[in-house]
Write a structure and sequence with these properties.
Layout lengths: L1 E5 L5 H8 L1 E3 L18 H20 L4 H15 L7 E18 L4 E18 L2 E8 L6 H13 L8 E6 L3 E10 L2 E11 L7 H14 L2
Helix pairs in contact: 2-3
């Protein structure tokens, strides 16, 4: 018996039970989002100021759908981070699949069943077949808390266990990074602080710095 589960329906409880997922409380586990970040230029800051202004101006009229968020906010970030140029390349709608065999006991018999989780990654940054950054972009009215299990599912599906996997979840106005490492039979993850466009300072500066730092790690 095979049951297919859409990735967007996965919960943290499911991932903890089926894949031994644990959240790290060690502040040194995920230092990449705050330690030794690269500097960005004044010109890049001016560009990001314009991106922030564009988003907030458009949002005054109507909440932005997912594709608009990608176009207005995500695309400029990827451009400034250099992810459109060698040695990186971008994949969109990348299909993933992870499975877990479970044992079902009933009064009549014991049988095995397979649960398969399927989904498609919005944007995937790749370098030499290594998954550098998984990006899950949602519409502006979508809560980031709801997308964390979905992003973690994609990270678990990464084809290599020798390197950490990073993810950026965003809805245009809020941004958060995730780090995941597979250690023996356990899977450990941690979250960065959440960044938002509704603070006085432009937190897109920090978001860009983190994205650039992640690119440097694999260079």
């Amino acid at each position: 018996m095979v049951q297919v589960i859409p990735a967007q329906n996965i919960t943290l409880a499911y991932l903890k039970e089926k894949f031994a997922l644990n959240k790290s409380e060690d502040q040194q586990f995920f230092t990449e989002w705050f330690d030794s970040l690269p500097e960005i230029s004044e010109l890049e800051k001016q560009y990001l100021d314009r991106v922030k202004s564009n988003y907030l101006s458009l949002f005054e009229t109507t909440p932005l759908l997912e594709e608009a968020v990608k176009m207005v906010v995500l695309s400029p970030l990827l451009d400034l981070a250099g992810f459109y140029r060698y040695p990186f390349h971008i994949a969109t709608e990348e299909s993933i699949e992870i499975s877990e065999t479970i044992i079902i006991d009933n009064e009549r018999e014991t049988e095995s069943a397979q649960e398969i989780v399927k989904g498609k990654i919005d944007v995937l940054v790749i370098q030499n077949k290594l998954w550098i950054l998984i990006i899950e972009s949602k519409r502006s009215s979508f809560s980031l808390a709801k997308v964390i299990p979905q992003a973690l599912t994609y990270m678990i599906a990464a084809p290599t266990s020798d390197y950490p996997v990073y993810s950026l979840i965003m809805n245009g106005e809020d941004f958060q990074f995730i780090k995941l490492i597979k250690q023996n039979k356990a899977i450990i993850y941690a979250l960065s602080d959440r960044f938002t466009l509704y603070r006085h300072e432009n937190e897109l500066y920090k978001v860009l710095q983190i994205i650039m730092k992640l690119g440097q790690i694999f260079s």
